Amino acid sequence: SERDRKSASLLDGKTESDTPLVLTTMTEESSTFILVSFDDDSYLIIDERSSGVLQIEHASDDAYARIVLGAYEEGATHQLWRFEPTGHGSYYLVSKRNGLVVDLCNFQLADGSPLIAYPRNNGWNQQFHFDCAGTLDTDLSALPEEADDSGESELLCADDGSSKPLSFFDLFKTICKIYIYFTHMHPPCPAHHETG
After folding, report:
1. What is the separation of C-alpha 133 from the centre of its chain, rounded to a whole number of angstroms?
2. Which DSSP helix (H) or strand (E) runs through 146?
3. Furthest CA-CA distance within the chain
4. Which band of pLDDT confidence, cut at 50, 70 and 90, is reported for residue 89?
5. Which residue, among 131, 126, 124, has the nearest Cα to 116 in the 3D structure?
6. What are all long-range contacts of 169-174, with beta carbons under 8 Å and residues at least 24 apart?
7. Rounded alpha-carbon distances, angstroms, from residue 74 to 3, 88, 94, 146
8. Spatial contact of 169 and 159, defined as CB atoms under 8 Å apart
């Protein structure tokens, strides 16, 4: 059911740098993220509470590197993501740095299970959904200046035509902040290639 959805959230709701992104049972306390788009259709995924961004730990190109919270660095490709449709309503979160995708490690459904960077294998544990999480109440002055003021990027927040959402954001009408979550979770069959 919808109440059983699992979301991608920062561990224990922490907001410090290096806090890992983990699987949690979706509640009103789940992490919410703000998206800032760049001209090449890459995005910063900004934690609403801390204004930190999701990144691959240590800018690693290795499979199994954790997805963690970090301070924004201009031009850092390990902090930039593309949303690639799966063809059935969900999306892969693909790193601009190396093409690795956000992956639920080993299909572990327990709360606290880590989300990592891993080569795409089309498993359900790499396919995410998004919901608009309501109105934007974050102080925009806390967002990275380079992303907010340069004109090189665009905050996807308004529903009055002043923003330029990608097609999947059109589903939300009001583009403000989002939850990231899984829906159709099931244990892998023995023949399926599992990730780390």
Report:
1. 13
2. helix 145-149
3. 50
4. confident
5. 126
6. 172/130, 172/131, 172/132, 173/132, 174/132, 174/135
7. 38, 33, 19, 7
8. no
- Residues 66 and 72: their CA atoms lie apart, in Å, by 17
Q: First vs last Cα of the chain: how many Å apart? A: 27
In this predicted structure, the answer to whether residue 80 has a pLDDT above a threshold of 60 is yes
13-27, 89-103, 127-141, 153-167, range with the lowest pLDDT: 153-167
* Alpha carbons within 13 A on the beta-carbon side of 161: 0
The 10 Å Cβ neighbour count of residue 5 is 17
Q: By the 8 A CB rule, do 144 and 132 touch?
A: no
Q: What are the distances in angstroms from CA 110 to CA 3, 25, 101?
A: 15, 9, 20
Report the alpha-carbon distance of residue 42 to residue 153 in Å, rounded: 10
pLDDT greater than 90 at residue 122 = yes
Q: Is 50 exceeded by the pLDDT of residue 186?
A: yes
Binned at pLDDT 50, 70 and 90, residue 37 comes out as confident
DSSP labels, 79-123: G-EEEEE-SSS-EEEEETTT--EEEEGGG--STTPBEEEE-----
